[in-house]
Design brief:
eight-stranded antiparallel beta sheet, 6 helices, about 20% strand, about 25% helix, SMI1/KNR4-like, alpha+beta
């Protein structure tokens, strides 16, 4: 069902956001059109890597990747901006190494990482943020997914498992991007240097008034 939910979400006819220009909510609005991109199925080798990397927590992840080797949600049609990227399996290792290097200071402070984030696997990111969604594979929170934010670390799990992660990243998109994951996604209008911040999401922006 979670795979079908994402597939249905990605079939939105003309998705987009009503946005305001940073830094204030006052002023004109802009309709940013976006795309949701689902990748083709992962290879058998990639599925085997998922099972090896995540162990007993691999089932939901492998089931999704058998259909799609990751995705990009809320991809701007006028710039390189995007909201959430579930990484192709071949990118997991590099992402995990980057994540761990960002938090290597915690290796000497295990009490600062009780959920074993730093030893987890980075499977997704907010593009251009340097932040990752990480699944711990040992410890009390193994199998959950955390948003490892280098600006503020984390307070609690982003999702209790992978299926709930899929549900979370497709629920309340404007709040997700503008508040929950740090407001890194700024859209372009193709005419000015304004940075447009999501305020309200529409599955079809056709006819939406700004």
């Amino acid at each position: 069902m979670p795979t079908q939910t994402i597939e249905q979400f990605a079939q939105a006819p003309a998705p987009g956001f009503r946005c305001y220009a940073a830094p204030k909510r006052t002023g004109p609005r802009f309709l940013a059109r976006v795309q949701h991109i689902l990748h083709p199925p992962a290879t058998a080798e990639s599925i085997a890597q998922i099972r090896e990397s995540l162990g007993e927590h691999a089932a939901q992840v492998a089931a999704f990747y058998e259909q799609h080797d990751g995705f990009v949600l809320y991809r701007d049609t006028l710039s390189e901006a995007a909201g959430i990227e579930l990484l192709p399996v071949e990118q997991w290792q590099a992402a995990t190494e980057d994540m761990r290097s960002s938090f290597e200071h915690l290796a000497d402070e295990p009490e600062s990482d009780p959920d074993h984030i730093v030893t987890g696997i980075a499977i997704a990111t907010v593009p251009h943020s340097g932040n990752y969604f990480v699944m711990p594979v040992d410890g009390p929170s193994a199998g959950k997914i955390f948003y490892a934010d280098h600006d503020g670390w984390y307070e609690s799990a982003f999702a209790d498992d992978f299926d709930r992660f899929l549900a979370h990243v497709s629920h309340e998109p404007a709040r997700l991007l503008a508040e929950e994951v740090g407001c890194y996604t700024r859209y372009a209008d193709g005419k000015t240097d304004a940075q447009w911040i999501p305020e309200e999401y529409f599955a079809d922006v056709t006819g939406v008034q700004v």
